[in-house]
Each structure stands twice: as C-alpha cells, then as structure tokens.
C-alpha cells in the first residue's frame, strides 16, 4: 500500500539524519514550509520536488508517486465581489479544471482566511472589489504561500501592467471562458499537478 507524500517525505528526511531546519536550509525555504509539507497541509511544486530528491538522495519518482497517491486535489479559488460573476465563473473553472477543488468568494477577507488554512494553488482575482483591491489580495496570498499562482480577471486592459508588477502570473479579460483558462494552465509560474494540460 502506498504511503501519503507527507509521510514519505518525513521518513526520507529522518533516514537521511536531517532535522526539518537542516532540510529547510538546504532548500532555501523556511522551516515552517517543511513542517507544512510533512503535515500534509501543502505540497512542494515539481521543481522543489526535484531538489528534495537530490538533497534526500530519494528517488524523485517515489516522491512524485507518493504525492500523486495522496489524492489531494489542487485548491483553486475565484474571488469577485459580484455574485453573478461567481455564479457564471465557478462552473467554467470546474469544467476547465475537473481535477481541482474550486471555491468561490465574494468577500476577499474570507478568501484570505481560506488560504491561511488551505494550500491554494491558483487564485483568480477580480481587480476592483469595492473597498479592497485585488492587488492587495494578491500580495496577501503570496505572503501566505509564495507558490500560489494568481491570475487577475478584469474588464479593463489598462490594468495589465499593474497585474505584472503585483507578482501575479498574468491577467485575463472578462468574461471568463474555459478555453481561456485552459490556455493559461501550461503558462503558470508554478505548475500544478492534477490540472488539465499540466
């Protein structure tokens, strides 16, 4: 029976005689990141998995197999203060990414709170959300998890430059379409296992 990724990682680290801090130092990440990997709250991206296998002397295939066997669906969120956008957008995202767990929020604060408890792999953010800017939400999400991919949704092309400067992967024009989403998946800054086209 295959073991979950977090357990495979913990065992490999212990067999190598490394503490969480030593592993974190070798990978140039915070110890808290290693803790999250080992508790199953987050998984490293493909590039980090390759570095992990090198540092631990573990077969990357075995680590990847354990990661896939964990069965965790990538978390995707859609944040827009207009409920009609969520009503139309959530089915589009679920259709374009059937391997993902897609959640929608009209309240940006609730989206950020969700991201603190769940490893959000991809966030679609409206730029103008009343009292808060999508740019601010983007910064908060990336502070929580630098590996989160952020794509802005906007009806205004003039936001394109601001989107790039915020740390986001890019932006898409509204309305959201499954075809446009699928085109973006291979271009994400941090590839996500379990999504169509990746």
Could you walk me through the main structural features you see in this protein, from its secondary elements to its overall organization?
This protein has about 200 residues and is of the alpha/beta class. About 50% of the residues lie in helices and about 15% in strands. The protein has 2 domains: about 5-70, Orthogonal Bundle (434 Repressor (Amino-terminal Domain)), CATH 1.10.260; about 75-185, Response regulator (Rossmann fold). It has helices at about 5-15, 20-25, 30-40, 45-55, 60-70, 85-95, 110-115, 135-145, 160-165, 180-185; strands at about 75-80, 100-105, 120-125, 130, 130-135, 150-155, 170-175. Helix 1 (about 5-15) packs antiparallel against helix 5. The longest helix is centred in the middle third of the chain and has 14 residues, at about 85-95.
Quick take:
The protein has helices at residues 5-15, 20-27, 31-39, 46-56, 60-69, 83-96, 108-117, 134-144, 160-165, 178-184, and strands spanning 75-79, 101-105, 120-126, 128-129, 132-133, 149-154, 170-173.
């Amino acid at each position: 029976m295959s073991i979950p990724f977090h357990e495979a990682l913990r065992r490999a680290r212990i067999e190598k005689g490394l503490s969480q801090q030593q592993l974190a130092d070798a990978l140039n990440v915070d110890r808290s990141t290693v803790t999250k990997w080992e508790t199953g709250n987050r998984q490293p991206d493909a590039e980090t998995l390759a570095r992990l296998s090198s540092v631990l002397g573990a077969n990357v295939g075995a680590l990847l197999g354990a990661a896939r066997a964990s069965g965790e669906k990538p978390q995707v969120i859609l944040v827009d203060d207009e409920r009609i956008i969520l009503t139309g957008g959530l089915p589009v995202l679920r259709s374009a990414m059937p391997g993902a767990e897609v959640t929608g929020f009209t309240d940006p604060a609730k989206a950020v709170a969700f991201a603190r408890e769940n490893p959000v792999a991809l966030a679609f953010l409206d730029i103008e959300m009343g009292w808060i800017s999508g740019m601010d939400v983007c910064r908060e999400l990336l502070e929580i998890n630098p590996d989160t991919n952020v794509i802005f949704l906007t009806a205004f092309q003039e936001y394109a430059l601001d989107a790039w400067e915020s740390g986001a992967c890019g932006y898409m024009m509204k309305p959201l379409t499954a075809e446009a989403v699928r085109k973006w998946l291979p271009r994400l800054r941090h590839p996500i296992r379990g999504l169509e086209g990746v």
